[in-house]
Amino acid sequence: MAIINPTTLHLLLFMVATVVMVAADLHRLNHPVKADGSISFLAIGDWGRRGLYNQSNVAYQMGKVGEEMDVDFIVSTGDNFYDSGLVDEQDPAFFESFTNVYTAPSLQKQWYSVLGNHDYRGNALAQLSPELRQRDNRWLCMRSFIVHAGNADFFFVDTTPFHAKYFKEEDQDYDWRGVLPREDYISQVLEDVDVALKESNAKWKIVVGHHTIHSAGVHGNTEELVDQLLPILLENEVNLYINGHDHCLEHISSSNSQLQFLTSGGGSKAWRGDVNPWNLDEMKFYYDGQGFMAGEITEDDLVVSFYDIFGNVLHKWSGSGGLHREW
Fold first, then answer.
1. Is 117 annotated in some ligand binding site?
2. 219 in catalytic set
3. Does the pTM exceed 0.85?
4. How far is CA 119 from CA 31, 240, 292, 304, 306, in A?
């Protein structure tokens, strides 16, 4: 089991104690910020392969960058355990792909995770179980929830049930407990997210989901999210949508709003070699290999950076004062 220092354990207990329900019926967690009001975080997706496919190398660089930034928490964009999630709460894959891989001191912080489609192929409820938090205090996974941190709100959305094809696949089994009937579940998620966004007074609104909305990667756009979730994000002036699913690092800028589409799905297996044509005015960055994303949020600025497995900064973007700058 991971060794948690007293400060981290106190933070965990503080956050658990501050879980409340907002009017939109989404769990809300309050994460403390630094003394100057800023926060920093890392985002990683599509990672759980027992350290293989460069997962350990990505984890090593995350640890170095996390120490330099003094990160407050880590965001997981889903597909946490390959190939088919966890069998149950005692599945050794939890230790082999999570606890024993992300061992750097800087990564002994709270992890906020959503489920991906591969997680639904296993025992989805196991990843949501409080029992996993007893095995490793860093772990926290829910279907849809909110993390409030200073002047930023993070809205985590369960996107897998939106994808109609998963309900038609005959060669894969999915754990749809708590999701059916699908139409009712999706309708409730959309309503909850819309209400929560409207209630938010945060300067920076960040939505996290596993599936792409817009992507030039092999999976491309998720049309169900384009049709159903994207209008809500645009109406409520969301700043960032962070996802995984495509095993790459990517930044697409919206041509008609402030919304930025950021893919951080390079946690392990990548290099698929499939890149679809995209409007170069919108495509700010695409990298087909492994890596992760980092974010820094202050009162006046939001900066995101993409790193490869050697710790190189591949792309950096700032949204301060409405001025969008790329390095």
1. yes
2. yes
3. yes
4. 25, 24, 20, 27, 25
Phi, psi (deg, nearest 5) at residue 230:
-55, -45
The catalytically annotated residue of 211, 219, 251, 315 is: 219
Question: Residue 140: which residues within 8 A CB-CB, separation 6 or more?
Answer: 29, 110, 111, 112, 113, 133
Residue type, 218: V
What integer pLDDT is reported at residue 272 of this predicted model?
79
- Looking at this protein, which amino acid is placed at residue 185? Y
Tell me if 175 is assigned to a ligand binding site: no
Alpha-carbon span 97 to 81, nearest angstrom: 7
Phi (first) and psi of residue 278, to 5 degrees: -150, 155
DSSP per residue, 156-175: EE--GGG-GGGGT-SS----
Residue 72, annotated as binding a ligand: no
Beta carbons of 128 and 8 less than 8 angstroms apart: no
Q: Is the peptide bond before 231 cis (omega within 30 degrees of 0)?
A: no
For residues 170 and 167, what is the distance between their CA atoms, to the nearest angstrom?
8
- Tens digit of pLDDT for each residue in 173-193? 999 999 999 999 999 999 999
Secondary element (H or E) of residue 56: helix 55-69
205 exposure class (CB count in 10 Å sphere: 0-12, 13-18, 19+):
buried
Residues 81-138: tens digit of each pLDDT: 999 999 999 999 999 999 999 999 999 999 999 999 999 999 999 999 999 999 999 9
Mean pLDDT for all residues in the chain: 92
